[in-house]
Amino acid sequence: IKNDVKLIHDGAQRVAGVVKRLLTFARQQKPQRDYVSINELIETTLAFRSYELETNNTKVTTYFAPELPATIADGAQLQQVFLNLIVNAETEMKLAHGKGKLSVRTEAIDNTIRISFKDNGPGIAKENMARLFDPFFTTREVGQGTGLGLSVCHGIVTEHNGQIYVDSKRGKGATFIVELPIVTRPRQLGLAESEVEESQKAAKAKILVIDDEPIIRDFLSRVLTDEGHEVETVDNADDALQKVGTERYSLILLDIKMPGMS
């Protein structure tokens, strides 16, 4: 019974993690912006992750521009970006080598702050580069990644009028680069307050959940319904195909491995 309970608990934790990332990706929250130091945000993020970096044999080197200008941004959101990039690099290096080296650099170029995260992991195949920031795209084994981390990063950076991109070749590591505008006055943020509020209104989505496990299916349905969405559920691939053939959905969440048809 103890093992069964542990399996249920671990499964629930995985589902909760996926749902949390989905809601982060889908929910367009109004940023809480103030003057922030990018160097300090990265230092805090690295300190938060220090134990995992050490246990995963990841050596981190930092090169922080000493006179890096402050900028107006949502510090918590940017920390989420930095954490995702650090964890991604750490994971890829561990899977490839069992250890790794991560270099984090900040610099000011004209009116832009550039932050780079360079690792010595396996690199990224050329055919995957164009899809790297797409939601749910992942090259990892089932259960090792949701494919939402980089898409969340892209959304946050874009919301800050910045850009995120990667320089990589297979077998030669990867460098993820975040570029943010140096904002010193609130009016530089773009939209007026009324326009921002209008853009934050969450649209209700019609969602189809396909999973043969009733606990996961019911949990996803309940959480998404509580968020105001219209949710339909099915427990097999045949019914799912019939639904998709006759209905239009904003989002489909489906189990990869199903009885009869995966």
UniProtKB/TrEMBL annotation:
The keyword Metal-binding does not apply. The keyword Glycosyltransferase does not apply. Residues 206-262 form the Response regulatory domain. Signal peptide: none annotated. Transmembrane segments: none annotated. InterPro entries: CheY-like_superfamily (IPR011006), HATPase_C_sf (IPR036890), HATPase_dom (IPR003594), His_kinase_dom (IPR005467), Sig_transdc_His_kin-like_C (IPR004358), Sig_transdc_resp-reg_receiver (IPR001789). PROSITE patterns: HIS_KIN (PS50109), RESPONSE_REGULATORY (PS50110). One of its GO terms (molecular function) is phosphorelay sensor kinase activity. Keywords: Kinase, Transferase. GO terms for cellular component: plasma membrane. It catalyses: ATP + protein L-histidine = ADP + protein N-phospho-L-histidine. Residues 1-184 form the Histidine kinase domain. Gene3D superfamilies: 3.40.50.2300, Histidine kinase-like ATPase, C-terminal domain. SMART domains: HATPase_c. Its EC number is 2.7.13.3. This is histidine kinase. It comes from marine sediment metagenome.
